[in-house]
Write a structure and sequence with these properties.
The chain has three helices and twelve strands. By secondary structure, it is mainly beta. Strand 1 and strand 2 form a beta hairpin. GO terms for molecular function: carbon-sulfur lyase activity; metal ion binding.
């Protein structure tokens, strides 16, 4: 099957958080064809934050164009927000059900989105107004050195979307396992076959 960019709809358990992620599937990257910095990435991290939060990172190729937060429209005001010691990445969570859908370091803006033109699934029901409003990251915002960062938790992609199967991603070794449990800058090289110590599949 030829890889193509598809819209994946997801959200938290109670439905207060809803998003669309544009992601290329079947996943094109493996150990023999690793992603470049500007390409999408799928990863598991063994740091205590990501491990305890159960994060399965889906990082879009273009954070400003490939991710739309449909609800709420201001994650910084309306979602719970956890910051680690470096206070760079916002680990957002739903204040009602506690599910963590996304992490970002980006400033955002609310834009009008034409759901029909983007071939989005039925994201808000047949009576939804057109255009639909959505929050997106502002290109170039975030860390001056590392750029705009958006990561979606793969566990929160809605079930029943034929193109997306987390079993396939793991079994076909499309998941890159990162070692950030070690001291910063001293972690082991990433690998594709098995998680590092303190990590998980």
């Amino acid at each position: 099957m030829e890889s193509r960019k598809v819209p994946l709809v997801g959200g938290c358990h109670c439905g207060a958080t809803r998003y669309v992620l544009f992601f290329t599937l079947p996943a094109p990257h493996t150990e023999s064809n690793p992603p470049k910095e500007e390409e999408q990435r799928i990863s598991r991290c063994n740091c205590t934050t990501c491990h305890k939060m159960g994060l399965f990172h889906l990082k879009p190729a273009d954070p400003a164009a490939d991710f739309l937060l449909l609800h709420p429209l201001d994650p910084y005001a309306d979602l719970g927000d956890y910051l680690t010691e470096d206070r760079e990445i916002h680990f957002f969570f739903c204040k009602t059900c506690g599910v963590r859908c996304l992490n970002t370091n980006a400033a955002g803006e609310v834009v009008d989105v034409d759901a029909a033109a983007l071939e989005l699934p039925d994201i808000a029901g047949s009576d939804a107004p057109t255009p639909t409003k959505a929050w997106r990251a502002i290109k170039g915002s975030g860390d001056p050195e590392y750029g705009t960062y958006v990561s979606v938790n793969g566990h929160t992609v809605d079930a029943g979307q034929a193109e997306f199967d987390m079993r396939d991603l793991t079994e076909k070794k499309c998941v890159r396992y990162l070692d950030t449990y070690s001291d910063i800058g001293k972690g082991l090289p990433s690998r594709w076959d098995r998680p590092h110590d303190h990590g998980c599949y």
